[in-house]
Amino acid sequence: MNTTEFQVTGMTCGHCEMSVREEVEEVPGVESVEVSHQDGTLVVTGAEPVDETAVISAVQEAGYQAVRSA
Amino acid sequence: MNTTEFQVTGMTCGHCEMSVREEVEEVPGVESVEVSHQDGTLVVTGAEPVDETAVISAVQEAGYQAVRSA
Question: What CATH architecture applies to the domain A2-68?
């Protein structure tokens, strides 16, 4: 499994987490999504490495900004 | 028209506002709902005075706490 972590800014509550989760789960190859508004983290797992740009775009669709964690 | 104002605690974003709105709109007699997470306000309008207890319960259903404004 390949895990990729992102920092997401702007999430304030569980509703925000749900919005991000719903969009990111639609990205091809994504098998699981963990998201925390408290930590501002998004962890995406798939059998293959995920398309980071697609994940970032999905987060933007939900109304937030993401960057790949260093 | 009768307008009743409440203070709502716990809302952090537009998703929270939407959750409150959806529940409060279901209260019988409610014709319009204005809600602001920034101000923590909920303004409910109806032809007759609204049932304040029903509004407060609806807010609780959404996951927040409301009190009638003084």
Answer: 2-Layer Sandwich (3.30)
